[in-house]
Amino acid sequence: MFDSLYIGATGMHAQQMNVDAVANNLANVNTVGYKRARVSFVDLIAREASRVSSGDVPSLAGADDVSRAGVGVGVVGITKVFETGDIKKTDSAYDLAISGEGFFEVTLPDGTSAFTRGGSFKVGPDGLLSTQAGHPLKPAIAIPETAQSLTVSQDGKVLVRMPDQTTAVELGQLDLVRFTNTAGLQSRGDNEYRPTAISGDPIAGRAGEDAMGTVRQGYLEGSNVKLVDEMVNLMVAQRAYEASVKVVQASDEMLGMVNSLRR
Questions:
Q1: Which of 77, 116, 153, 215 could cysteine-pair with 157, CB 3.0–4.6 Å?
Q2: What digits encode the pLDDT tens for the residues 82-128?
Q3: How far apart are CA 199 and CA 213, in angstroms?
Q4: How is residue 166 annotated by DSSP?
Q5: Other residues' Cβ atoms within 10 Å of the Cβ of residue 86
């Protein structure tokens, strides 16, 4: 009976995390380059059974492994799904979308690197091409104050036209990076990610090479959240949460009946 209370509680906790993740997806449906989060669950029955079978947990006399089964559900983790979102035209020279697997590399205030698919850039106070959060691209690209136009080619070359020149001047090369396992990237906010042991180290390259993809100026990659799918996921998570609540309530009522019989 106490087990059923615990099982219901684990279900409530897991589904609350699921609801939170889905709600965050819905809140970011219009966020540039946002990648939806997905909650992965683990069956605690299998976890306990494997512990018994491996000898980590001694079996009680006369009891088999099945008697240890049924202890609820847990959350393995929350991962990002790196499917490409819709590419939308904006006609802004500072909007860049990647058609492929690549990421932009940016420099954080502490000097370390982060990686993003959000291609909405601006010229920072220091003249560097930066994200909306103020993190400059790496390698740094300085835009002159007197520049009349900015052009970024599909292979990442950055050019500007100056008032006293008839031809565009190349400022630098916009490099991209990719990862062996993007699902292993760790989100740090601001639509930026850090590599982990699971994702592997960043693999640097140029746009148009291998699977990096090409750069499209005047376009932005939208969120990959599908509104209808997330609404369905939210309803399913809410129903699962309600079912777990009913398990706890039923167990509490049964426990109350047992206590009353003792009197």
A1: 153
A2: 999 999 999 999 999 999 999 999 999 999 999 999 999 999 999 99
A3: 19
A4: S
A5: 10
Query: Residues 24-31: contacts with CB within 8 Å, 24+ apart?
Result: 25/225, 25/230, 26/225, 26/227, 26/230, 26/231, 26/234, 28/223, 28/225, 29/223, 29/225, 29/227, 29/230, 30/222, 30/223, 31/118, 31/191, 31/223
Phi and psi at residue 20, to the nearest 5° = -60, -45
The whole-number average pLDDT for the span 44-57 is 55
The answer to whether 26 and 34 have CB atoms below 8 angstroms apart is: no
pLDDT at 171: 92
Tell whether the model's pLDDT for residue 231 goes beyond 70.
yes
pTM for the predicted model, two decimal places: 0.79
Domain spans in the chain, listed from the N-terminal domain onward: 2-82+226-262, 87-221
